């Protein structure tokens, strides 16, 4: 049994936990089918283990024990060879996310979900050490998709026992793909005692994206060096690729062969046609560096390009690879159903791989024709070489100097062995007696067995259905014996026998199955495999089932055949002839058998013959003839009943084995005669057996001499003897008289005979008639005609009488001679008939055929009679009474007709043709139907349409007779439907739907059918004229459907109303769960959708007798009768109606039951929805006995019980009554108990004395007076305090109103912003800058004419010389010593400014961009020098500023390496943040002069004044081609004209790069009103308002532009610019102090550096004046509003930058590792110092720059208002990266207070980011170099290196002497002649005179 289920992880919701618990129990308890053998359609039975609870992924067989291991989703199973579960383990589900790295912390991984664990690798580790002296425990290696594909080791004996598992895996331990859809394969090696696993895995889009396609993993941890198990270390090989996503290999298989490891996979051909192909790659088993990697494409002719499964095996003694291929679907990796099996020889495969290696080593990859036949794959910076010719021989597994990885351009081709139209998914092979058999699995669950010929062509000989419509897994494994194959599908493991030899019972079935495993072992008499037959090597002893037509069984398959082509394939040892094959059972004879292919025997061995079950007889063998003696007659078994022979199996026996068999027949002539009683002679001589007939003896015999001295009639087979055959037998062969004999009349009978002259003696003849098993004998007289040899027998006349209920009766007749019966013809019979039976009217009588002589006899009692018995004269032959109509059904029909009308009556014609065209209904023709016509009694006709509603009789006319008319009237009606009740019901159906209308009872009940949509609605009640009730059918979905009714073929629909199929009602709770027997207790029911069946007509329950009762809740009870067993109990059902209160609640009343009943169940019935009470309440409903209440006055029941109103009556319960529970309130329901009579007392209460009343009144008056005096005194004293208090209240109220108004307004704005932002902030696209522009803006910020965009400006005469000199300078820069000396020398110069340092660093970055590995190496060296400098001073200050060349080089290096990260990850949230900021800023007023805005995060840029503004929408006319389209644009009425133009351009060019749209200054804004009203608007014109020395900029409010106004942007004609605005690259800065003409100062919303001036129209209000003096800090709430709106976008940016759940960029990991190494090298153990270094190198040096300047990354415009917001966010990012505690106080800047709560959370992100990178294992140097190589090739061409070199030379020229002196001082530089080489450069570049 499986192991116990481990407790599930606690989850957040109980219902999810419950679902998981149930699921885990289902998955961990596999059940072996109780009848484990299931027959397939092919007839094969096999055991299997169903594991339907969990999809199965992998199957592994332990070759030592034969045990099986199954890897499934969330489970691991250990099975015995006979599929018994030995152990199991649950491996999932667990909390995980492919986007997060383990361990998973929910708060740090929001995408974490409970994720199933799919098994990806299941391998067996043998565990032998290097010398073999110690054998480590064998283990099971299991890898799944959870936690980035980590692996563990488990015990082979108990898979739940974990031998190794990492608790905190690092990135080098991620093995398998984390996506169930991505393939992973593995193969285990043992290299010098070290267990290794080579893993091939596909590319996953989520999680670590830098895991190579093929990696080497160590299987055990090591201490020296320290390595973890399953880790991928630097010393272990891997397949490095340039682009992981491009080379997404779909791995199929991995296997060992010889000294190599092979991988089979498919991917897109990146070298040739970009089509998907299948490849085989090979590695030397001991090659840890992957120098020997080479791959070759496989080609399977016919377009089969995608491998699905593979199996290495042997074919004809040579290794081969069998691959199941499928055809891809139109250049996609999706396989179609068309598939094939292809076989590739391993020697050919190795030769193809070796040739590709040889060509790439020695011929540059080119073949003899010069075509490229080998190349370097995977975008690796290597190339094919021309090494010495013996390089491959010297280095068969490559070396450091050989190119790799190598790919062959020439595919290895093969012809399909077999093709199928169903996709093949698995293949394995077996070898049997030198023959190869392939076993193939397909997608539909079939296992196909294919015989592979020597030329690799295949023949399918059997298919077995293993698992219907479930794909066969690629893990198809043979057991140890090779007799069974284990087949894995999604739901079960099956053990299928490879052959069915033992199931074939005989030779014929053994050979006909054509199974290459099988053959017939002749002398053993069984179907066996060849080696199981003891004499298989001798001729004709083992007959092969699959013997080809031209090859004998004992001839090897690889030798040519000697048999002729037309000779049949192997056939069983057969009896070719048997003499005699038939013989009489009355004698014994010799039997001879001729046998073909008789096996040879030794002299001591003999054969025998066996007849049936009789003892064997000795046999004499002469060549191929075997002679035996047949059994004695008395030993033969009797013939079967009803048979005249017995067939026995005669078998040639070897000991107790039947070699060959045939059938011999023993016939019995006596039985032939006995079996035919009417004509025994004819049966005897006409028999297939050689029998003869003795005439006088009446005997059938087998010999001709068995009839001494009497006539013998010989068998028809005896052609030479006479008489012979049935024609010679004496017999009565015909009736001379008519066979029709009327009842009650004397009728003579005459018979004709022949061949009666054989009877020589005269005897009496008698005619025998058999009537109802009684024989009637009539004397017969013989008349003989000697001439014609005819015999006529006349039987005496007889009047036949018998009771009949039909017209005629067939009676046999024969002739008897004495006691001997004469043969009669088989069809010799009399037809006795009575005309009066069944002919009730004239038409029926006349319809009887004339041969019978029946006539319609008139008179007082007319009827049908024989013509001789009719006393009155019959009427004319064609005259019958007119038709008489008795009844018509129905009596109404629709005006469209189409219903069938049935007419019952008499004389309705003798034939169908009589009434054709003779039926009318209400004056309309009715078309008779042939199938419904009964002669004279019934007509069925189809009603034809009527033009209007009408009525009338039915008229039938038969021929020329008078028509018959019905008494009933038929009505043509036009039924109408008016409505339905109810109009809704559950989708389960069962709703009683009432269709209302008029004339609904049209036609018959069976003609009416109702439908709701296409679903039938079954009519359940009798239909009346106005109502039709039907029960709805279930529907598969909710819908609104039309109700229609069919009246025959006429259809009516309910107009204007539909029926609503709604979700089924669901009951979730019901209480109480108890009731008394009397019932009536209210049960409160809650749920949902309860009102779907809300009306009483909808709530019905069917009782025991089929009656319908309204109700919801129903009890099924059984009435107990005495002590009889349950079989005698009767079931009854009770029900009560429920009342629906709402959709969620209803109340039901419990039904009453008898006290002696047993309640079996209680349930709710809502139409077709039935819910048991127990399933809802969790317990059964209980009934208890009714309570017994005692009378109120039990001492004297007749005396009334006296009761005072307002009191309580106590009712006593019988103490003997016991109930389950009693509550304070007892609801009796339907129980009525008479407690006796109650008498109410009516006496009044005692009155209060008058004196007391007066005293009380006086006392109350005194108390009231005293209270009034105290109140007056108190009010006088407190009046002054109240006035003072009111003054304070007024002041507080004024202040509160002021502040409250502002807060409410800001809060409303905030909520509006939060709702609008999500829909408006997105955009059509992200305008990312190309790399060249990005690099220019980052390398040379704020500079125009940067070197990136310049060309080399030289005269043509000097260009070539200068370029040559610059080339030599480039070579010098590639010398590490020169470059470092050059940089140090420049930095040592006094006038080498900080700007110069940054400029030189960027120039060096440009010049060395195509050699980033070298650039990185130099940068690391310079940084090492920098660390050395700061270690002696203050190391925490390093990298804080850009004071050295290397610091700017670091900035540039980070920018290059993180460009892809910006594009793919951080770019989108950063752009969304920018858009959100711009959107929010533009929604409020922005001062065009000061740049202050209402909506900002920066308090220094906050517009603190309350500006009245409103949003208006302008209709902008935009010209699109030749058409002009209106475009709505939202602006503010306080916007200046330039701001309006900017907003219009933002809307028109939404999503377009800023550089591609026109400038606002080049356009004029024109306001168009009417046909001629065009006004050009500008910021400053003659209408501008001037107040003193202030001039206000014009706004839309100034021009009074209304909402909805039409405007247009037109090109500016004059070169007049309004407000001067300075534009930089992507930046726009307003003018802070604009100076107009004549010294006027410009202002927009507020005047700078002055108090706000009150508008005139607001000076009259005191409250407004007070508000104008309000504290400006009130408006700081706007900062909070802006922060709350942008919070999500800020979080998204920070999380994208600092998210550790996706692998950090390789450059960050690389550089942080470098800083850690530097700290360790210099003994710096202060973690704060390293944290500061990392912060200064990445967040401060790169991310802050990007956050503050999004125009570096995007083609956008950053205004001053937006820049102010970005500055606050960038500062928050810096604060989050610092280690110092973030303390804020009352005096802290507002910007820091804003994000005071968020900064600690951001700090945790930063710390986690740094620690995760630090804890991850190092070893990314090789990967970093690969990345740098890729970046060099991708972007190096964008750099203008010559211009950069020329600019660098300017600095060389400036400090030429110092540089030369520095180079000459260095000894190494002198050896390299660096100074001399620099002098050469100077001479070439500017003709400098040197000391050369």
Layout of helices and strands:
Elements: H1 14-28, E1 31-32, E2 38-39, E3 45-46, E4 48-50, E5 56-61, E6 68-72, E7 75-79, E8 85-90, E9 94-96, E10 113-115, E11 119-125, E12 139-144, E13 151-155, E14 162-165, E15 184-191, E16 194-201, E17 214-218, E18 250-257, E19 260-268, E20 276-284, E21 294-300, E22 304-315, E23 318-328, E24 335-345, H2 346-362, E25 374-376, H3 391-394, E26 406-408, E27 412-414, E28 418-420, E29 424-432, E30 435-442, E31 446-452, E32 458-465, E33 477-478, E34 484-488, E35 492-497, H4 507-512, E36 519-521, E37 526-528, E38 542-544, E39 575-579, E40 582-584, E41 590-595, E42 608-611, E43 617-618, E44 620-622, E45 625-629, E46 645-654, E47 657-667, H5 669-675, H6 680-685, E48 692-694, E49 699-701, E50 712-713, E51 731-735, E52 740-742, E53 746-754, E54 765-771, E55 774-785, E56 790-799, E57 808-817, E58 820-821, E59 823-824, E60 829-833, H7 842-846, E61 854-857, E62 863-866, E63 884-889, E64 892-894, E65 900-906, H8 912-915, E66 919-921, E67 924-928, E68 938-943, E69 950-956, E70 964-973, E71 976-981, E72 984-986, ...
Parallel strand pairs: 21-26, 21-27, 40-47, 51-59, 52-60, 64-70, 72-78, 80-90, 91-92, 93-99, 98-102, 101-103
Antiparallel strand pairs: 1-4, 2-3, 4-35, 5-6, 6-7, 7-8, 9-10, 11-12, 12-13, 13-14, 15-16, 16-17, 18-19, 19-20, 20-21, 22-23, 23-24, 24-28, 25-26, 29-30, 30-31, 31-32, 33-34, 34-35, 36-37, 36-38, 39-41, 41-45, 42-43, 42-46, 44-45, 46-47, 48-49, 48-50, 51-53, 53-56, 54-55, 54-57, 55-56, 57-58, ...
Helix pairs in contact: 10-21, 12-29, 12-32, 13-30, 14-16, 14-29, 15-16, 17-21, 17-25, 23-24, 24-25, 25-27, 30-32
